[in-house]
Amino acid sequence: EFRPRHILVTGGAGFIGANFAHWIARNRPDVHVTVIDALTYAGKRENLDGIPEDRLTFVHGDICDAVLVESLFSRAGSRSGVAPIDAIVHFAAESHNDNSILDAAPFLRTNVDGTYVLLEAARRHGIRFHHISTDEVYGDLELGEPRKFTESSPYKPSSPYSASKAASDHLVRAWHRTYGVRATISNCSNNYGPYQHVEKFIPRQITNILAGIRPKLYGQGLAVRDWISVEDHCSAIWLILTRGRIGETYLVGADGEYSNIDVLRMILARMGQPADAFDHVNDRPGGDKRYAIDATKIMTELGWRPRYTDFAEGLDATIAWYAAHRDWWEPDKAATEEKYRLQGH
Ligand code: NAD
Ligand code: DAU
């Protein structure tokens, strides 16, 4: 078992990275976290509030900046009483498909070049590297077919976003095979939970209702996503980081398949709205039909089990979080909706 003492969490001010930093602070108080985050539109420093100051180092910067990344390995190690960085968990990315369709450039830069910079640092310093990726690298499945994605599904990404994530996965495998970087990869399905940007499906619909805007459903809402609580994703990452086999890929999912229209109807019902109180808007060009994860490998090899498998309960907790944190999302709402309006979404 690998026992990290100081993890560099890239993109730790974003949705999943921040949840992971909180997860570490709650569950592994012996581990120090350094977050590097560029604080793009998707990142907020305050997402890390509440983590004890002596367990967190925050660096505001870009993962594409090789000089800055290199400096972390001396600077962080010199903080008194803190062990040198011995692992990188790489979340930082441009993460939203609709944005990638408007302008792919930042996706190629951060997701591809940024991953390259971090892999080079891991190679120079002999650092354990865990890469956070997505099930979208496998393209999509047909509605209603029994098949799910497995670790041996072929790569077939559909969007500029998923193509850039596929490229990053290939870089990680190449740096493992060619240079011996001690790397693992996880490809997870759609996460939900606190700190998710209001551009994403579930937070957008919840905050629309809270703001008096009608929810927006792409097309007929028949596309299926495989939802997992961000807490369960975090526990899977920890297991792979500490007990995963080097060079291996693990798929992470919790058997949470729902069509978009079913998710929207659940949100409407739970927020006391009529079932038809939403608008149909333009579908996503090239939009994937269905994702579904077969998580047999991580369950049998590493004994991972999801704990938060009651999706209705998870939605209630998420609705409660957005209702209680208006100050967190209100500043982003108008600009996000305006961008969608211009795309007919
Ligand atoms: P997010 O958009 O909420 O957060 C991304 C974070 O990365 C932000 O804090 C942003 O400021 C930071 N960032 C962006 N560019 C950067 C750069 N050049 N340098 C430093 N920091 C930068 O994304 P998320 O939903 O938390 O996704 C995190 C990771 O998980 C991504 O790699 C994504 O591909 C992957 N993933 C996400 C999901 C999901 O459902 N959200 C599912 C599977 C995998
Ligand atoms: O599968 C993992 C992926 O999940 C991650 O790699 C991505 O980073 C993450 O953004 C997410 O991608 P999706 O494209 O599946 O998520 P999104 O929330 O953008 O959309 C989910 C579905 O909901 C999709 O079919 C489009 C639809 N949708 C989306 C929005 C924003 C709507 O119907 N209405 C909306 O307003």
Folded structure, characterized:
By secondary structure, this protein is an alpha/beta fold. The chain has one domain: NAD(P)-binding Rossmann-like Domain (Rossmann fold, 3-Layer(aba) Sandwich). The chain contains 11 helices and 13 strands. The chain has helices spanning 15-27, 66-75, 97-102, 105-125, 160-179, 201-211, 230-243, 260-270, 296-302, 311-324, 326-342; strands at 6-10, 32-37, 56-60, 87-90, 128-134, 183-188, 191-192, 216-218, 224-226, 228-229, 249-252, 257-259, 279-281. The strands form 4 sheets. A 7-stranded parallel beta sheet has the order 3-2-1-4-5-6-11, with helices on both faces. A two-stranded parallel ribbon has the order 7-10. Strand 1, helix 1 and strand 2 form a beta-alpha-beta unit. The longest helix has 21 residues, at 105-125. The termini are far apart. The model has no long low-confidence stretch (mean pLDDT 97). The structure holds nicotinamide-adenine-dinucleotide and 2'deoxy-thymidine-5'-diphospho-alpha-D-glucose (DAU). Nicotinamide-adenine-dinucleotide binds at residues 11, 13-17, 36-40, 42-43, 62-64, 91-95, 110, 114, 132, 134, 165, 188, 190-191, 197.
